[in-house]
Amino acid sequence: MHKFLLTALLAAALPFAALADNDDDDDDKFGLAGVLSAKNKEDLEPIQLGAGIPLTSAPWVLKSGTYYEFEIQGDGSQELALVGPEFFRAIWIDEIVVEGLEIRPLGLDSVEFDEAGEMEIGFLAIKPGSYYLKIPGSTGETQRLEITIE
């Protein structure tokens, strides 16, 4: 009788043990930090902000749900801004770092460099679509970065 009861209990528990084992397999899942975990992070090519130089060498193609970081490097050759309100509303900005100071904004419309410097922006791509970042008032292709969020 006890042998039968023990066998029945083990048979009933085996499917749950298999489920528990699958829950512990984090090979293709996010870590404890979720979408902000290192497994979900990619670095993008830096944006070069200077008079007459291309912003980047190629357009960005991003994946919704992925966390990205990029640097904007201003050479100080002239006062330059980058605008892209539609892009900034299609992402969630985690932080902007300028000279070790971390800024956590609720939103962003543009950034401007009055002198040489560097800033790093970390964000989560959210809304699929076609966007851009550009130097305001410019018309050249190299002064505009095309961005696609898939």
Summarize the structure.
The chain is an alpha/beta fold and 150 residues long.
Q: Note the main sheet.
A: 6 strands, mixed
Q: Tell me the helix content.
A: 10-25%
> Termini separation (Å)?
60 Å
Assembly type of the chains comes to single chain
Query: What structural category arises from helix and sheet content?
Result: alpha/beta
Please tell me what the overall shape is. globular
List the total number of helices: 2
DSSP summary, beta strand count: 11
* SSE sequence, one letter per element: HEEEEEHEEEEEE
Radius of gyration: 23 Å
Beta-strand content estimate: 35-45%
- List low-confidence stretches: 16-21
What is the mean predicted local confidence, pLDDT?
Answer: 85
List descriptors.
three-stranded mixed sheet, six-stranded mixed sheet, alpha/beta
